[in-house]
Q: What sequence folds into this?
């Protein structure tokens, strides 16, 4: 029977409370592999995710089976092996796809070096002062990083403590020469790599033509019953493009009509089946049909990054009132200002683009802090922007966006309005 994510987590926690392998039951809540292959991993065991009545669920039998498997699993803490961690690499050297494949050893190395680098940044030390920060110390960690600092940092970021639903740092040990893990646990993670790679490979295949999509799930589309894989040509053949004919229609009226969004291609990515009608929450007008991923980006992603997506700003201007008033929803305003400051402000003669963030808002004035301290010992300053300046910058951004497109969208509501 289907059970909620919350109940699945509670049940799994009870079943594995005495397990030898340290586990993270919260994986059942976050579902990190949902888009890629539709499963949650604990070790080499894949638990399938189901969509039931528009909510993600699990089969209770699956949760009990994986819980019993880990409760019965024997891992000798005395039988250990050298895990033979690879050399650290900043970026993929040859094959970007290979970089995305599951590799628990490389992930451990990335955790160590990322933390060592971030520690130097937090200390405000100039890059020239970092020295040989990649050199491995007597404790097996790079730079001046201590084991306590490494564990503390990992504990505050869940993506830096979990591999395949397990917590390797609780079992990892430094012998003075090598990093060690229990043999049975290392074997478990090796099997996980092969099992996850196999699931991703199968999930990459277009359900219509069988072509293989990108490794990171670019062809995976959320639907009312779960994710499906469909390549852009097959999506284009199966669903009609949205022509803007509902521009200006109130969202509530569209809902009462029962007009289906999943008859259309996503207006933003133009590659996946749409699943919802996106609309402006301030003016109530329909913008267009979006797939689940693009709809999430618009509603929950950082506005700063959404505005940089191709077609992102133009999609927001599908709202008739935003277009006519040459504005954007309020939650995007400060990110327009932030982008403007980063493009125009510089620290003295430094040519590097700074990072801007809002410090405070008082008496109608937004105070931003700008930093390029990664390159200067004292590369930080503030900039005040008034409410009228914010409005002017947003209008200028909208005008530039409309000018940059080949043909301006008409403010006419269109034949579907009324």
A:
């Amino acid at each position: 029977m289907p059970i909620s994510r919350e109940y699945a987590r509670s049940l799994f926690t009870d079943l594995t409370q005495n397990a030898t392998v340290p586990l993270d039951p919260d994986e059942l809540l976050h579902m990190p592999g949902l888009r890629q292959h539709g499963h949650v991993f604990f070790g080499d065991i894949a638990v399938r995710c189901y969509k039931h009545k528009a909510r993600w669920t699990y089969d209770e039998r699956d949760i009990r089976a994986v819980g019993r498997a880990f409760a019965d699993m024997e891992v000798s803490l005395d039988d250990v092996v050298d895990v033979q961690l690879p050399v650290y690499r900043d970026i993929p050297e040859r094959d970007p796809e290979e970089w995305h494949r599951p590799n628990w050893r490389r992930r451990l190395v990335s955790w160590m070096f990322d933390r060592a680098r971030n520690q130097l940044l937090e200390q405000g030390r100039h890059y020239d002062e970092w020295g040989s920060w990649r050199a491995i110390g007597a404790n097996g960690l790079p730079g001046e990083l201590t084991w306590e600092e490494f564990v503390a940092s990992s504990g505050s970021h869940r993506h830096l403590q979990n591999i395949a639903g397990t917590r390797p740092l609780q079992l990892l040990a430094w012998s003075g020469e090598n990093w060690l893990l229990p043999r049975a646990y290392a074997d478990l993670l090796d099997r996980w790599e092969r099992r996850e790679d196999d699931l991703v490979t199968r999930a990459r295949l277009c359900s219509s033509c069988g072509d293989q999509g990108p490794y990171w799930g670019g062809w995976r589309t959320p639907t009312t019953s779960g994710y499906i894989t469909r390549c852009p040509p097959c999506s284009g053949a199966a669903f009609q493009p949205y022509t803007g004919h509902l521009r200006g229609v109130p969202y509530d009226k569209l809902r009462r009509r029962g007009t289906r969004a999943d008859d259309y291609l996503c207006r933003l990515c133009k590659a996946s089946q749409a699943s919802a009608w996106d609309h402006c929450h301030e003016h109530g007008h329909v913008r267009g049909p979006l797939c689940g991923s693009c709809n999430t980006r618009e509603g929950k992603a950082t506005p700063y990054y959404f505005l940089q997506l191709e077609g992102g700003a133009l999609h927001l201007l599908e709202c008739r009132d935003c277009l006519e008033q040459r504005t954007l929803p309020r939650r995007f305003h400060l990110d327009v200002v932030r982008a403007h400051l980063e493009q125009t402000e510089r620290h003295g003669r430094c040519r590097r683009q700074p990072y801007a963030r809002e410090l405070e808002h008082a008496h109608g004035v937004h105070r931003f802090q700008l930093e390029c301290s990664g390159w200067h010992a004292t590369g930080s300053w503030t900039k005040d922007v008034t409410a009228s300046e914010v409005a002017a910058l947003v209008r200028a951004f909208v005008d530039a966006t409309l000018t940059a497109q080949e043909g301006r969208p008409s403010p006419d509501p269109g034949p579907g309005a009324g």
User: Anything to note?
Assistant: The two ends are 45 Å apart (CA to CA). Residues 245 and 414 are 6 Å apart (CA to CA).
